[in-house]
Amino acid sequence: MRRTIVRNSPVHGRGVFALADLPAGAMLFEYKGQRLSWKEAQRAYEKSNAEDGHTFFFGLDDGRVIDGARGGNSARWLNHSCAPNCEAEQEGERVFIRAIRPIGKGQELFIDYQLTVEGRRTAALKRLYACRCQAKQCRGTMLSDG
Ligand SMILES: [Zn+2]
Predict the structure, then answer these.
(1) Residue 90, strand partner residues
(2) Does domain 4-128 have CATH number 1.10.8.100?
(3) Distance 1 CA to ligand 1 centre (A)
(4) What average pLDDT does this structure show over 92-121?
(5) Per residue in 68-106, pLDDT tens?
(6) How, if at all, do strands 65-67 and 57-59 pair?
(7) Name one GO biological process term (predicted).
(8) Strand ranges (DSSP E) for 31-104?
(9) How far is the CA of 122 from the centre of ligand 1 (A)?
(10) Is the pLDDT higher at 63 or at 4?
């Protein structure tokens, strides 16, 4: 049974929504896509959809990125929130999305992208990854704190 669906999001573009009440801890799906180096990913992002602001990137522990736009599944539509209700778990090279709180039917699913970038954080870079999640604790960026 499908537990999630992709539709238009009030936060940004499209999003992933719960089709049923999901318990905390539920494993929802894998985040699929092609593996890119951070440099490759940044180049692809600046070229393709920089105005759109929607990233399909998921950062791996080793600094590489999963590009959900290439070979990805519906997980690529997960929007970022600084107060997420889902988190990503990395198992080797694979990433799985798990609910970290009970999620009510119809609610949008969010993860904290915590994107990491190499080099200096320029103003342009910060603008590119600005966060609009509207959470109380929003840190204003989809980049990680570090
Ligand atoms: Zn935010």
Answers:
(1) 95
(2) no
(3) 31
(4) 89
(5) 988 999 999 999 999 999 999 999 889 999 999 999 999
(6) antiparallel
(7) methylation
(8) 34-36, 57-59, 65-67, 79-80, 86-91, 94-99
(9) 18
(10) 4
